[in-house]
Amino acid sequence: MSSVLQSEAANDRATTLRNRAQLGANKNLLFWYSELYRDQFRDFPNPAQLSILEIGSGTSPLKQFLSNVVTSDVLDLAYMDLVFDCHEIDKLDAIKDKSIDVITLTNVLHHLKSPIEFLNRAASKLKSGGKVIATEPFFSVLSTPIFKYLHHEPVDFRTSEPELAEVHGPLSSANIALPWLIFFRRREWLQRLNENFDVAGLSARPYSALSYMATGGISHRLPIPRLLYRALFFIDRAFSHYFPSLCASFFTIILTRR
To answer: What is the domain extent for residue 98?
Structure first.
């Protein structure tokens, strides 16, 4: 590995550890995530009995809520169960083919070089009827200017292919518009998943409007009292559900393996 790549990896590990600590200290943000996970797995009677692989677990608190989750990341972090490049998941011997009930990712797809290639390769590890559950930014009237002008990650609606034009470190490479384009705007891109997944039966649902921003996110912590935040959260989530094109900021897609 070159010294430049080593330096980028070291910076990404340090940033991930810092982000993880900041997320854990932000109780409102932890609540937002706990409700997200409840929503992600609401169709499963007993998620604790599932074989679940999480991709991009560096900052994720999912294992705090579901201890049976197998965590993974491309960064070599001491608390990871598996360390590998998810674009090569089909070559991963540590997980048997057709053995996983659920592969889950939260705000990870938009960091991948080729999200569609990853999903098609990941299908080999899923049981028939297994699920991919992914949550990503949604571009509504309210959220679009926030993501475009106030968020630090790039937004490119004009990309000609469903992949990143350039890749640097796993944290610095991103186009947060990619998943939204794949699942809501570019039908021909979505069809590239049809061989492995039931695209016609795709489930997509909005999740929250401003309640993530109201936590301050990972970088900041806004001083909103916990009980007040939780009361406002449920109102916020209801608005995103009933008026997604107006105010939703995130969405969860569920793909089913053929």
So the answer is: 3-256
